Amino acid sequence: MKYMNKMILCASIAAVFGANAANQYSPEGVTTKTIEITKPVTITASNSYKVEGGKASGSAGIKTADDSKVDMYLGVSASSPSAQDLRIVDDTQTLTLIAQPICGSSVTPELDQAAGRSGVNTGAVTCKNVTSMVTMASGMEPSNPAPGTYTFKQEYGTFTE
Fold this sequence. Notes:
Order of helices and strands: HEEEEEEEEEEE
Signal peptide: 1-21
Keywords: Signal
Structural class: mainly beta
Number of strands: 11
Strand content: 35-45%
């Protein structure tokens, strides 16, 4: 009995301190917030417009460096009649290329004539959620331009709505 009382005392002390050591939690719910960490996108451009044998051809294209999908645009003339009938004007505004856009992933291009982009090509042809897009030249105005050097500048980049 002498040893039994000491054991009961030890068990009682352990039970008291052990019960206080663990917290009792009563969950009421869960709060959730999702954050998105975006990586910077790099877009590369290439341009191969040319006139040979009195015909305009070539293209200007842009693509993401890592094949990520973004909403992207290329500058075009604000006087472009439609998204499928684009005009790209040279810096002197004496020669205009007639072009059609092609969006990657078979996305339908849209024309924003009021985009307010820099230079003489202030409109924008846009493609949503793509890795690439191009404007393909198929003609020019005038159809018989004067000999000379013509520079076509098209701003490009990404956009959000």
